[in-house]
C-alpha cells in the first residue's frame, strides 16, 4: 500500500542570513518517522520551524500535499510555560479541558509554573499527541524526561500509523532512542569561506 506524501522539499535552503546546511530534498509520507541529527548550529531547529511555516526558507521549495495539519513542539517549550495558571486552565485554553492521558498531572489545580521540567514536557507532549494532526514536528521531545517517560515516548513514536493515526513525525533528537524503521537525516554545517 502506497502512503500519501504529506510534505516534500526540493533544494530547500534553511537559515536566516545565510544557509546553515546543504540544500535538502526530502519526501515524507503518512506513517513515516524521520530522525534528524547533527551538531549544534547546523539547522535542526531551523528545519523544523521552516517545515512548520514559522520561518521562510532562503531558497528552494517546500511543498505540502492535501493541506496537512502540522503540529510543532519547539525545543525548551515546557520551560517557557510560566504564569499563575493551573494545569486545568492550560488544558481549557487549548480546548482540551477533558483530556485524559497518563502524562497529564492528576492534580489539575496545580500551577503549571510549579511543575518540574519533566512534568511540563510530559504535559505538552500529552496535549500535542492527543490532537488530530497529519505531521508532528518534535524538537528534542525527550529532553527533561526520565528514562521511563523516554521509553513510553519511544513506544508511541515507533509506529506513528498505529499510535498517532497516520501522522508522520519529524523529530530532532540527541537521545539514543532506537527506531529501526525510521529514516535518518544527518545535517552537516557548511564550511565557511
UniProtKB/TrEMBL annotation:
The keyword Repeat applies. One of its GO terms (molecular function) is ATP hydrolysis activity. Residues 30-192 form the AAA+ ATPase domain. InterPro entries: AAA+_ATPase (IPR003593), ABC_transporter-like_ATP-bd (IPR003439), ABC_transporter-like_CS (IPR017871), ABCF (IPR050611), P-loop_NTPase (IPR027417). Keywords: ATP-binding, Nucleotide-binding, Repeat. PROSITE patterns: ABC_TRANSPORTER_1. SMART domains: AAA. PANTHER family: ATP-BINDING CASSETTE SUB-FAMILY F MEMBER 1, ATP-BINDING TRANSPORT PROTEIN-RELATED. This is Macrolide transport system ATP-binding/permease protein.
